[in-house]
Amino acid sequence: MRSSFANDQSERTVQKKVLITGGAGFLGSHLCDRLIEVGHDILCVDNFFTGSKENVRHLIGHPRFELLRHDVTFPLYVEVDEIYNLACPASPKHYQYDPVQTTKTSVHGAINLLGLAKRTQAKILQASTSEVYGDPEIHPQSETYWGKVNPVGIRSCYDEGKRCAETLFFDYWRQHEVKIKVSRIFNTYGPRMHPNDGRVVSNFIVQALLGNDITIYGDGNQSRSFCFVDDLLDALVRTMETSDSFTGPINLGNPEETTVLKLAETIIQITQSRSRLVYRPKPDDDPRQRKPDISRARSVLGWAPKVSLEEGLSRTIDYFRKRLVI
Ligand SMILES: NC(=O)c1ccc[n+]([C@@H]2O[C@H](COP(=O)([O-])OP(=O)(O)OC[C@H]3O[C@@H](n4cnc5c(N)ncnc54)[C@H](O)[C@@H]3O)[C@@H](O)[C@H]2O)c1
User: Fold this and answer.
1) pLDDT reported for residue 18
2) What mean pLDDT comes out for the span 245-267?
3) Looking at ligand 1, which residue's alpha carbon is closest to its atom 17?
4) Which helix (H) or strand (E) holds 325?
5) How many Å lie between the centroid of ligand 1 and the Cα of residue 230?
6) DSSP per residue over 250-281, as a string?
7) How much distance in Å is there from the Cα of 287 to the middle of ligand 1?
């Protein structure tokens, strides 16, 4: 059945009809805000597995916002100009909860949305991930690196699902001339992250604010690079705006590297928490280091992150303070 969104034409200056899958999640809900602000019509689609209506509650009732409960593993028939495909649980705890559904979300989701893009001639952007590089042998990772991924491990449902989605994107481009953009997102954090999703930034902040022990997996010397959500959204929107000849893949993230231990110490300092650091064994397939080479983003998008780790963490901590009512 067709969504009424297809017929929602009006007198106002509508720039584009934009479908955001996973729109009620952390990144998706900020993207809804961003695109509503510049005058687009937004169709936010989500099955609320990890996302929540709370994240978009402030937009409900807005004349250019529509929220649809839908699982992207099933086809969707709507008319749109642009598609941001963000639907997929992103934290290991959530994507390992139902790994078969995780792979289906990436693979069947990509097939359904690419089919939609083909039919409507919409541009389509895939939220891929640095996980396609697996446990990388080169550092930093550039887009030409093919990755080192375990195909049968506990993270494979996510990593290989996303890799297969990238393959589908490029095959739809080569075979059907669908206008694709593949962005490889590195660790991103900010307000509206799920407090219990087990991701390192939200974990540490919640533990620090509650005065609980801060759990470090491994020795804490594994490196990560953390990008604040506002910076990432600038890059995503710029990627969608590139000319049709640009497909990506393109790394989006913050190249400033920090260790997990340093992250914990910074959070303790900002929150002035008395939490202690405790060490636990490193989970299987946890990558030792991650850092994007963003040369392509700098040259193609004219983009680089602006928000420092301290500033981004402070804004995220403010959000969690309110959310946890501390
Ligand atoms: N945040 C990061 O650091 C990061 C890094 C790399 C890639 N990404 C990618 O960006 C996207 C958004 O991530 P996020 O951090 O906002 O995570 P999130 O879990 O907050 O958002 C994912 C959203 O997708 C929805 N969803 C899951 N399965 C679905 C399905 N089958 N049908 C419809 N909706 C479904 C969830 O309910 C949720 O709202 C994901 O695709 C993720 O893989 C995020």
Assistant:
1) 98
2) 97
3) 90
4) none
5) 16
6) EEES---EEEHHHHHHHHHHHHT--PPEEEEP
7) 20
